[in-house]
Specification:
Largest sheet: 8 strands, antiparallel
Strand order of the largest sheet: 1-2-8-7-6-5-4-3
Number of helices: 4
CATH superfamily: START domain
Distance between the termini: 23 Å
Radius of gyration: 15 Å
CATH topology: Alpha-D-Glucose-1,6-Bisphosphate, Chain A, domain 4
CATH class: Alpha Beta
Low-confidence stretches: none
Mean pLDDT: 94
Structural class: alpha+beta
Number of strands: 8
Shape: globular
Order of helices and strands: EEHHEEEEEEHH
Number of domains: 1
Strand content: 35-45%
């Protein structure tokens, strides 16, 4: 539907908003089930996700490993702090090669109106420098690429079997 809308808040936060043409229960499922996450959370072309572990409960851990065509891995993991299906999650994460200067806290809200879901993520970096480092990477392009793939997956999931 729409592309990412990204705004800066304070000196450490990014607010990322994205709209999906699907009910929030379906969007939540696609964000939470490893087999589905591995199909869309890939970033730009040329990346796969050979490792996707999700224990979706407060205190539960998750770990993702992406691999590019050159065989280079990028890993990230974290802990869920709050889980309220299908409306809200809060988690902390850190990349294995920490390029953002410490743990990042992400609050994800899903709101549905008429079968259309708006996802709002507040990404709180450990420092202003961490946010600046993240914004200096192609992270947002990778996110939009993944969410565009998610649009296609949600459409397929919405079709009768």
């Amino acid at each position: 539907m729409t592309k990412l809308i990204v705004t800066q808040s304070g000196d450490r936060d990014l607010i990322v908003t994205r709209v999906f043409n699907a009910p929030r229960a379906l969007v939540f499922k696609a964000l939470a089930e490893p087999a589905l996450v591995q199909r869309w959370m890939l970033g730009p072309p040329g990346w796969t996700m050979p490792v996707c572990e999700i224990d979706l409960r407060p205190g539960g851990k998750f770990r993702y490993v992406w691999r590019n065509t050159a065989g280079v891995d990028m890993g990230m993991g974290g802990t869920y702090l709050e889980v309220e299906p299908p409306a809200r999650t809060v988690h902390e994460e850190i990349f294995e090669e920490d390029w953002t200067g410490g743990r990042t806290r992400i609050t994800t809200l899903l709101a549905e109106v008429g079968g259309i879901t708006t996802m709002t993520m507040t990404i709180e970096y450990a420092s202003p420098e961490g946010r600046a480092q993240a914004l200096a990477t192609p992270m947002l392009d990778g996110m939009e690429s993944g969410y565009s793939t998610l649009d296609t997956l949600l459409e397929a999931m919405s079709q009768p079997a």
